[in-house]
Every structure is written in C-alpha cells, then in structure tokens.
Design a protein that fits this description.
The chain is mainly α and 432 residues long. It has 22 helices and six strands. Helix 17 links the parallel strand 3 and strand 4. The protein is globular.
C-alpha cells in the first residue's frame, strides 16, 4: 500500500511540460534577485564594499577562501552568472546552466550575505538546487529541444518527483510562515503586526496604497486581518492539493501574491516565483489538453503549407526545427519532390522556385519564400513570436535575405548530408 502510494506521488511518469513552463520564471526570479547587485560590484562585492559574512550558513574555511577572491575573479563570476542565467531561461544546456547559476548564487552569497541574505533568497537556493538534479526542465520550450530537433519534447513521460518536491516546498513555505506567526517570536496572536506596519514611514516596508490611512486608524481591523492571514496560509496549500478546489486555490494564491506586492515592499520572489510554483499544481495533462485543443482549432481554421526539398539533409533538419517551434500545428509540410504539379498549390509556385528556397503558402493564399517566409512564420508560431520584433526592424530584411541566399547556396558545405541536393538536374542549386 505504502509502496503504491509512494510510486503514485513521486515516481509515476508524467509529462514534464509543467517544469518547462516553470523554468523561465525561475531564471527571471534569480536574475531579478542577483543581477541588480552585480551592476554595483564596487559597492557590494569588491574590496571597497562593506561585507558581512554568513557564518551560520557557510563553514569558516569556505568564507575565508571566498574572501580571498581577487577582483578579476569576482568580475568574471558576475559576467558568467549573467550568461548562465540567460542560458537557463532559454533552456540552452539546461542542467549545466542551472548548476553553474546555482554555484554563482552561493558564491555571491558567501562573498557578502548582507546584500542578498534574505529568507526569500534561501528559498530560491532550495528551488535552484532541485533544478540542478535533472534536465527535465529542458525537455520542451527550450533551445535544447530545438538543438536536438525533439518533436515530442512536451509529451515526454518523466518521473514526477521533482515537480512533486517543488509543490511540497511551496506548501511547506506557506505552512512554515503560518507556524512562525503563531510562535512567541512571531507575535501575531499577542501583538498586532498589521497595525504597526500601517504606522511605518512611507519609505518603509509598506507602500502607499488607498486604504493605508484608514487601516492605521482601525487597530481591531488590522488585528482581524492578521489572524485571517494565518488561517489563509494554513488553508491555501490544502486547496492546491484537492483537485476540485485546485483552480480556485491557484487563482486565489496568485491574487494574494499580487496584493502583497501592491501593498508591501516585498522581494521579487513573491511576484515572480511563488505564482509560477502554484502553477506546478496544474496537472501536466491539463497543459497537454490545451495544446491539443489549439491544434485541433488550427486544423479546422486551415493550415499554412510549407514546401521544402525533402531530398536535402540540411533542409530536412531545418524543417524538423520548424516543426519543434510549431506548437499549435499551424504548418502542413509538403516535400516539393512529391508534388506532381506545384502550380496546383499556387499559380506562382514552380519547381524552380522550390529548388531555390522554402515556400510558405498561407491559408489566405499569400505566397512567400526564403527569409520572408521565415519572417512571416515568426508572427504565427508561438515559440517564434519573441523573434518577430527583431526580424521586422529596418534593414533586417535586406540582411536576412542575403544571409539566407548564401546559406542556401552553400548548404552542402555546411551540412555534409546535404550533398545529394547538388546531384541531378531536378535538385536545382539551392533550397533550405
């Protein structure tokens, strides 16, 4: 019985799509915590900074070794940390980037705990440590998936234990803070912390918001809010675990984090990391269902045709990457060599045109080729939309068209398996 429960809770294989969606939020939260302090190395980490060592967290030999870091090493560590944070967020060498980013977090924490030594930072370190255990976060929506040409990354079945541990971490954080408010040190039962907060100076912990002055004049209301918050922190994780109340609990939890951010000067973990952790309670099968329904709607509305050279290895690999990016099934692929009459698809389509570049025929009948076809796809493939603003900048079309033509004409040198493209009169001179 216990073995079956353990397998169901932790070892059961389920899609890792939730972890992939969580990865960018984790990277963004880490960057928002650490990178601003790296912009002021002289004030925070170099020899000119006032530093405070965290002897309760790090052994003394580690603190002494980190304290002896030359300034060039600190500068290099700062640059590498930023690089690995971006790399992890994009899902490039995901697990290695997570490990390097985590080591960077610990290094700067040991170098000066005063600047970033907070409870929320410790929570962040625990979350990062779990990200280092596995590469599942790069299964989908990542440059790793694109690099591998992994078409079914978001459907891969993986042990659920990492996502379950992250769920437990979030629930434990809420229950732990609630227990802390009940303790003698917490002072929420014998005291009135909310009433005290309302009398902080405007530049203190509390932001200026609409009801602040009214709350400052009503201590009993403040005390009632404090007691209600304790009950809320105990109840909210239970709502996440119960399937029927889970959607309500997630919405309520995200609204609560937003309320905290609007009324208090809280760390970025409250706004970015905690809501993303709550979304880990959404079953991965739910995310898959949303994707499949979107693909079904796209099929009913009509797909665009992407015509390519199916005898070209470089072209095949390129199209495979496009399929990875085509999350909602916008494209219907056609090998130009399998077409008896290309003009039947579009009057302007010919075998010669197919031999020169890939062709995109949109549902409305618009035909575009080469770089212009790629630029059109950036506005229609969800995983390419982040590139769309850049490919539409002035001058990019001119440059992109020439780069595309050069790559197309030299593809058999770039990709050895594409040599067959250059053999025979049917293959023309270029197509990607």
């Amino acid at each position: 019985m216990i073995g079956k429960l353990w397998h169901r809770l932790f070892l059961e294989e389920r899609p890792s799509i939730g972890l992939a969606l969580f990865r960018p939020a984790l990277a963004w939260t880490v960057g928002a915590h650490v990178i601003p302090s790296l912009l002021r190395l002289q004030d925070n980490y170099l020899s000119t900074a006032f530093k405070e060592k965290n002897g309760s967290f790090f052994p003394l030999p580690i603190l002494l070794a980190v304290e002896a870091s030359p300034e060039w090493l600190i500068r290099c560590a700062a640059v590498l940390f930023c690089v690995f944070t971006v790399s992890f967020g994009l899902g490039l060498f995901t697990q290695a980037s997570a490990i390097a980013m985590t080591l960077g977090c610990y290094y700067f924490y040991a170098l000066n705990s005063l600047h970033i030594g907070t409870l929320s930072y410790d929570i962040l370190l625990v979350t990062l440590s779990l990200a280092c255990v596995t590469g599942y976060m790069g299964d989908s929506f990542s440059l790793d998936q694109l690099r591998r040409g992994d078409l079914g990354g978001y459907t891969k079945q993986r042990p659920f234990f990492i996502q379950r541990l992250l769920q437990i971490q979030l629930a434990g954080t809420f229950w732990g803070t609630a227990m802390g408010k009940l303790s003698a040190d917490g002072n929420w039962i014998s005291g009135n912390p909310y009433f005290a907060l309302m009398h902080y100076p405007p530049e203190g912990v509390v932001r200026s918001f609409l009801a602040r002055e009214w709350l400052a004049a009503h201590p009993q209301v403040c005390y009632g809010l404090g007691i209600a918050l304790i009950g809320f922190e105990f109840l909210l994780p239970i709502l996440w675990w119960v399937p029927r109340t889970r959607p309500f609990g997630i919405v309520l939890g995200i609204a609560f984090q937003l309320m905290l951010w609007l009324t208090l000067h809280v760390p970025t973990i409250f706004l970015f990391l905690f809501p993303a952790l709550m979304l880990l309670f959404v079953p991965p099968e739910t995310w898959l269902g949303l994707i499949e329904r979107a693909r079904s709607r796209q099929a009913q509305a009509g797909r665009a045709l992407l015509v390519y050279d199916g005898r070209c290895g470089f072209c095949q690999e390129s199209v495979k990457r496009v399929q990875v990016l085509d999350l909602f099934g916008y494209l219907d692929l056609r090998d130009c060599h399998a077409l008896e009459n290309p003009a039947a698809l579009h009057p302007a389509l010919s075998r010669e045109r197919c031999a020169e570049e890939m062709i995109l025929i949109e549902p409305g009948g618009r035909l575009s080729g080469g770089f212009e076809a790629f630029r059109r796809m950036t506005a229609r493939l969800p995983l390419l939309m982040g590139v769309a603003p850049f490919v539409h900048l002035p001058g990019v079309a001119w440059l992109g068209t020439r780069v595309y033509r050069w790559v197309a004409s030299h593809r058999y040198l770039i990709w050895p398996r594409a040599n067959a493209c250059a053999v025979g009169p049917d293959h023309g001179s270029a197509n990607t």
